[in-house]
Amino acid sequence: MPTVRYHARNSRSYPNSLVLRNADTSSLELFLKNKYISTTRARILAPCSSMMYLPLLLSTFLGVWITLCKSAPSVSFISNTQLDPNGIFFVSYDGVVNVNSFQLSGVLTYQNWQYAGWYTSSKTAMLARRQLPSGSWSTLQLPHQLSTSDSHNVIALGVSPSDGKIHVALDCHSTQMYYTSSEAGLATSGASWTASRFGAITNTLGNLNIGK
């Protein structure tokens, strides 16, 4: 805050020159009232504003921003892959269920494998897997169909590193959640990609009921 010096003519024996540090006009007025000083004239002798530092701050920020942009990693296009020419499409809540903005891990990469989950045009839940960097995709069909045309009911994938299981949560928007997981080690073993390697679709996570 600036230092502001005031000269005041008063009717008591207080100094005619008052220096207030880290103070603004409102605090000065309060100070004068508290001291019972009857001020008839006040003049700012050495005003100082923080606005004078604004160009310096902007220049510093711009320099840092340019440096970060120069050091940012580059991104280059490799290829497109179409997993399903007939994936389901509808718009609700200004979104689509297979590629929603908030969706977590609809496509998941773990070690040397990549996974994807989506719904077909018949609302069937699908999972796919390929080996990186350029392996072909294998698909399997889960025994579950999308329960409602709600774009929030996305598919989310995860892997638990401790046991190599693939976890699938799906078809939930303020309702019960549907869940399944694979046998241990499937995320890293490269074993055959079949639905039999996944458990039944349930509303429980271990002993925890994740239904309504």
Summarize the structure.
About 15% of the residues lie in helices and about 30% in strands.
Widest β-sheet, arrangement of strands: 4-5-6-7
Question: How many independent structural domains?
Answer: 2
Count of distinct strands: 12
Strand content: 25-35%
- Main beta sheet strand tally, sense and closure: 4 strands, antiparallel
- Class based on secondary structure composition and strand pairing: alpha+beta
- Termini distance? 56 Å
Give the SSE string: EEHEHEEEEEEEHEE
Give the helix level as a range of percent.
10-25%
Gross geometry: globular
Radius of gyration: 33 Å
Number of contiguous helices: 3
The chain-level mean pLDDT equals 77
Q: In terms of per-residue confidence, which ranges show pLDDT below 50 for 5 or more consecutive residues?
A: 1-48
Features:
globular; 2 domains; 212 residues; 4-stranded antiparallel sheet; disordered N terminus; alpha+beta
Written overview of the protein:
With 212 residues, this protein is an alpha+beta fold. The chain folds into two domains: 3-67, no CATH class; 107-209, no CATH class. The protein contains three helices and twelve strands; from the N terminus they run ββαβαβββββββαββ. It has helices spanning 25-34, 54-71, 186-189; strands spanning 3-8, 17-21, 42-44, 107-110, 113-119, 124-131, 138-145, 155-160, 165-170, 178-181, 204-205, 208-209. Strands 4-5-6-7 form a four-stranded antiparallel beta sheet, with no helix packed on it. Strand 11 and strand 12 form a beta hairpin. The longest helix is centred in the first third of the chain and has 18 residues, at 54-71. It starts with a strand and ends with a strand.
